[in-house]
Design brief:
mainly alpha
Length: 180
């Protein structure tokens, strides 16, 4: 399919070819289909790789809108689109909107995992910490890092050095908040 060709071009670093193929997939795609959501998401990835975050924001928004209805609100695909959206919004310095995207992704992660420790939730929290630090809001960053630490310590399959890495991040945030 065109999506597979576009993805292969992206993975090979042939960004112009990937953009062309994915744009064609979007033009020919069935409105609202999962495949169209995938094409928009991968096109956004191409835009980010080409240092065009404002265009990536638009494509990630399209992907997320499609993925909310197909294959469903709790889908891993929607989380992926929201995380990409948040990342590209950070690159455009729209930290407020980035934070909103990461919060939404976090809520979906938590709903999917039924409150159990979840690596995707950890990543969403990590991105929230970055937003809070950019916005010079160390109090909110501290809350998120402490949640990350809880997750790191209770994951069913421990990740090497995750606890130490999270503690180091907490130390950095506490220094920024002058709570040392």
């Amino acid at each position: 399919s065109l999506n597979n060709i576009g993805n292969t071009c992206l993975l090979l670093g042939k960004l112009d070819a990937a953009q062309e193929v994915l744009a064609r997939a979007i033009r020919l795609g069935t409105p609202g289909s999962n495949q169209l959501g995938y094409a928009y998401n991968r096109l956004a990835d191409v835009c980010l790789a080409q240092d065009r975050p404002a265009e990536a924001v638009s494509a990630y928004r399209q992907a997320a809108a499609i993925r909310e209805t197909h294959p469903g609100e709790k889908s891993r695909d929607l989380i992926d689109s929201l995380m990409g959206l948040g990342n590209s919004l950070q690159q455009t310095h729209d930290y407020h909107e980035a934070e909103a995207a990461f919060h939404r992704a976090l809520r979906i992660c938590e709903d999917r995992s039924a409150g159990q420790p979840d690596k995707e939730a950890y990543v969403a929290l990590h991105m929230l910490v970055a937003c809070c630090r950019k916005r010079e809001n160390p109090a909110a960053a501290e809350v998120h890092v402490r949640r990350m630490l809880d997750i790191a310590r209770t994951l069913p399959e421990p990740v090497p050095d995750l606890d130490d890495t999270t503690l180091n991040l907490l130390g950095d945030v506490l220094l920024e908040a002058e709570k040392y």
